[in-house]
Structures are given as C-alpha cells and as structure tokens.
Amino acid sequence: MRASLIQIAVDPDESVESRRVRVADLVRQERGAADLVVLPELWPMGAFAYESFAAESEPVNGPTYEAMAAAARDAEVWLHAGSIVEAAGGALSAGGALYNTSLVFSPAGEPVATYRKIHRFGFDKGEAVMMAAGDELVTVALPGLTVGVGTCYDLRFPELFRGLVDAGAQAFVVPAGWPARRRSHWTLLARARAVENQAYMLACGTAGTHAGVEQAGHSIVVDPWGEVLAEAGPDEEILRVELDPAKVTTTREQFPALKDRVLGVARPRRDG
C-alpha cells in the first residue's frame, strides 16, 4: 500500500476557504501516486487558533467534508482528511457542542468513518474547555490493512492504542498540530506507539505558525519494528512511503510480545 502524508503549512494570511481549495488540489495531485492520503489536524484554521474555533466550526457534512469527499473521489484514494472543528447538535447557545472530528473517505468519495478526539489538549484552557470529548475508538478496514485512528494529544495515551490493537489495528493514523517546542516528544511517542504495538505509525503534522505557536512539522512514518521509513522537515512537504501489511504479521510472529500482555487483558474468571 502506498501512503502519502501531506504536511500542510498554515499561513494566517490565507483564508480558510482558499486553504480548502489548495489542499483539495494537493490531494488530487496524489492520484496514481498513493492509495492512502493523510492530512493534519485542524488544518483549515490551525490547531491553536482557539479564537476562531466557534466561527469556523461546521457540521460534519459541511464545506470541508464536501471539498475532501470530492478530492478523494477525483484522486481515487482513501483519504484521512485530518480534522475539523465540528459543530454538533445545533448552535452553542442552544446546547450544541464543538468536537475535534476526523473525517475518512473511500476512493469513491464516500464517508467511511468519523472520529471525535478523545483526549483534549490545553489543561484548563483552549481545546480542553472549548470542546467536548469523543468516547469511541475507531478503526477503518482498508484493503489488506486495518487502520486505527487517533489525533495529536491522543499520542500521549498508550491505552488508546492498545484498545485499537485489540480492535484489530495493524497501523495507526495520527493527524496533529504539534508545537515545535515539544518536537522531540512527537518523534519519541510516534516511535514508541509503533514499537509497543508492532504496528505502522503514520503521524502527519502541520507546518507554519498557528496563532503565534510555531508548529513542529516533521511528519513521520514508522514501521512495526520502530524503524523510521520517512520523516519530513519543518516546512510544507509531502511524504510518500510504501507500507507492507505482511510486515505487521511477521513482526508479531517473530517477536510475539503482544501475547505476553498481562495487565488490561480480559481473562476468564476462576471461581473458588
């Protein structure tokens, strides 16, 4: 399977609508070069542009959905379209809620999955207080490869990825808006989640600056043994890699560490 990670630069002087058009064109350019295309977290407005979240929020089937569905169909690719600020349940003043929601499309442009980010970043500000938390693990069955979905801050919570492995994941897709000042954590955690779960990790970040926060860039693809297959620099860039689903199987067979799990594994009850 061929995968392309498009590391989008977020420029505050570029409108959200202009960026949608530009990103859709970048996806279309991957026709024939990729089977799976991955975009970063909250690329329409930037992951740290909190003041824009409410104004730029949209229903799950809003303008970003429409643009990305068309791009996936035109490019004939599976598309993880990064994430949007989803406005769910009507206006906020009427009890609606915002979510950090990922969209996944088939090569026919059909929606196959949505994922609402479970772990919200910010502690007592920003996303953590402005957005509601998702509560469902999501996997997507691609041809020959089952992919588990996470978003940015989720990367710090290994139990989420264990849950995805238990659900059949052989690879993880993690879009992010990770700050440059913690770039070393980004690389370390991406490799750790791949190694401990013996799965591919496709971690796609943003470049540029979001509301004054410099982004790490350095999107990365890691194989099930923890080897880095490709890594971007700090600027807008496209990573193209080849994934071999059989490598997940052989890694887990040759070094069967997952079989030795004890904690967190459901076991038959013994009476008496």
Give an overview of the whole structure.
The chain is α/β, with parallel strands linked by helices and 272 residues long. The protein has one domain (2-259): Carbon-nitrogen hydrolase (Nitrilase/N-carbamoyl-D-aminoacid amidohydrolase, 4-Layer Sandwich), CATH 3.60.110. It is 25% helix and 28% strand. The protein is built from seven helices and 15 strands. It has helices spanning 16-28, 53-56, 63-75, 127-130, 158-166, 183-197, 245-254, and strands spanning 2-7, 9-10, 36-38, 78-88, 97-105, 111-116, 139-142, 145-149, 171-175, 200-204, 207-210, 213-214, 220-222, 228-231, 237-242. The strands form three sheets. It has a six-stranded mixed beta sheet with strand order 6-5-4-3-1-15. α1 (16-28) runs parallel beside α3. It is globular and about 50 Å long. 44% of the residues are buried. The mean pLDDT is 95.
Helical fraction? 25-40%
How does the overall form come out from the CA principal axes? globular
Q: Kindly report the spatial arrangement of strands forming the biggest sheet.
A: 6-5-4-3-1-15
Secondary-structure class: alpha/beta
Overall CATH class = Alpha Beta
Rounded radius of gyration (Å)? 18 Å
Q: Any idea how many domains? A: 1
The CATH architecture comes to 4-Layer Sandwich
Instruction: Name the helix and strand elements from N-terminus to C-terminus, one letter apiece.
Output: EEHEHHEEEHEEHEHEEEEEEH
